[in-house]
């Protein structure tokens, strides 16, 4: 729980997100047009809103599975230690896999999860992140598709939390502390 007062400014509107997802779904549809064995894997918890909207735009036969990974706890800094808290329910060996993530920040989470899943020998593994914050990168990782590149701001909404709150906002906003006199 944060004890500092803050407000949330809109960074990316719900309408802009929906329009971008339509385009991303078209690109993903072309990449996977030759397969009927695609498993779309959402990383809990942050991706739950994005994956729900993305799969409904995909005109492909898909299965949906989830993996829970966590590295932030309730703070604003990565622990750099990615914990797998819940494994996939299904097998992915020989399957095509699309990993769906809300945000790539330091890169530790998606780099770790990608390595973890590649060990299971999928036929093809691709990743998509709604947001990318390249200024904060600590490990060299880039998702195959990115919705929006964003500046170095702590964001919330559309599945993304600050101390577990604000995941239910329909837009992406940035946190601005109101007790910080420097801004
Ligand atoms: O690139 P990174 O610096 O690793 O940060 C990105 C990850 O951090 C957040 O997850 P978090 O660990 O907060 O768990 P959550 O998805 O349950 O909110 C976010 O949802 C990404 O998964
Ligand atoms: O900007 C962020 N907001 C919330 N959680 C996060 N995890 C990584 N980056 C962020
Ligand atoms: Mg996450």
TrEMBL record:
A GO MF label: hypoxanthine phosphoribosyltransferase activity
Signal peptide boundaries: none
Subcellular location: Cytoplasm
Catalysed reactions listed for this entry: IMP + diphosphate = hypoxanthine + 5-phospho-alpha-D-ribose 1-diphosphate; GMP + diphosphate = guanine + 5-phospho-alpha-D-ribose 1-diphosphate
Annotated keywords: Cytoplasm, Glycosyltransferase, Magnesium, Metal-binding, Nucleotide-binding, Purine salvage, Transferase
Enzyme class: transferase
Domain Phosphoribosyltransferase: 15-162
Annotated pathway: Purine metabolism; IMP biosynthesis via salvage pathway; IMP from hypoxanthine: step 1/1
This protein's GO CC annotations: cytosol
GO biological process, one term: IMP salvage
Domain of life: Bacteria
Name used for this protein in its record: Hypoxanthine phosphoribosyltransferase
Organism: Yoonia litorea
Phylogenetic placement of the source organism: Bacteria, Pseudomonadati, Pseudomonadota, Alphaproteobacteria, Rhodobacterales
